[in-house]
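Reagents: none. Just compute today. Tyrosine-type recombinase/integrase.
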Amino acid sequence: MNTTYDVKLGAIQHRTDRDTPLFIARWRVGGKPKSKSFRTKGLANAFMSDLRQAAKTGEEFDLATGLPVSMLASASSGPTFFEFAQAYVLRRWSTSAPRTRETDAYALLSLVPALVADAPRRPAAEDLREVLRTYALIPEKRRPALTTTQTAALGWLERASLPLSELKEPHVLRTGLAAISVTFAGTPAGANTVRRKRAVLHHLLEHAVEEKAFGSNPLDEIKWTAPKAVTVVDPRTVVNPIQARQLLDAVPKVGRRRGPRLRALFACIYYAALRPEEAADLRLANCMLPQTGWGLIVLEKARPQATKRWTDSGQTHEPRNLKHRADKETREIPIPPVLVAMLREHVAEFGTTKDGRIFSTRTGGTYSSSAHSYVWQEARKLALTPAQVASSLAARPYDLRHAAVSLWLNAGVPAPEVAKRAGHSVDVLLRVYAKCMDGQQEQINGKINDALDT
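Predicted 3D structure written out:
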């Protein structure tokens, strides 16, 4: 490498003769002109400031590239982690669900600011996360104009991010694992959060292996144990049929509009074990509601809630395929007469939306998860004792689904049929609801005794 101390910094030229304006930083190294283009003036200023700082401290400049030696190392070692992470998210955008996009980005909000060099003038942590969340990790056509603060934060990340190749070093990976193990406030993160973020990092590195950046996934060689996450339903959250009816009867008493409109939706979660997002997209055409006897729901879509920036439409709710189902695959759930009657009464009173949805706000929108939660918590106060309200009993609307599946299993419905109705695989069903299958211990003990006596 040929280096020199002969450095003269020039000005920033603003080019407006192109479709996209450019800001060109110009300087000379060893008498030879050098230049670098940027999308914004802020990035160009930040780059020139780095050159000025390197020259001021007496650092050598490379004659070939015109960069200080400290900047040359990162420039010549392939993509940075930040660059690769951006490409990873945007490459998966069109095939990922909004919540998956949000999960990927949420993990990278911890990882990208952590996997950086000790560069000067580091912006505040929240500024780094903000520019990642609102600009760098979404498609270019959806990016807003950058503020001055965001421009500085983005420029710093582009300069300070470690080369992707450095993630083969155990100490670098452990820095990333440490970052995902705490919240943004610095407190220990929940086990499920840590495991999800580690899964994103592992999958990102699998992509790097595919692109020949690594021979194997370097994360597999790190002796690091993720915290244990709770994967089974807590029986204390499960209501019995009497409690469920009391809660559903209390829901219409909450508010003038929300409660009455949400009673049948909550009933679908309990009597048909629908997920809340499945109930949100339930349409009259999906239902067989005879005047007497059992009915049938044929689910086609779900309507999950996500932050607007991660959805395709820019709306908080979008129709999606059913969870763990292929495109256009449906799920059939026979429903008892009590739910048939509730749905008939609901449609008679509130009608449907233009697209046939049974559950909606007065203006045809979709109730948010916070609206569900508010109505449910108020209903719990009306239907349960103070001690029960303070407990985890039916703490969330989703716990009605757990109560439904537990009821079916304990009623003796074969596990494959329960799994089919609930939209689970049998192995997941039995693992998740293992602690909720009561009333079988004496029968099982009797079978063991019979075997021992033979």
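The CA atoms of residues 15 and 22 lie 5 Å apart.
Action item: order primers for follow-up constructs.
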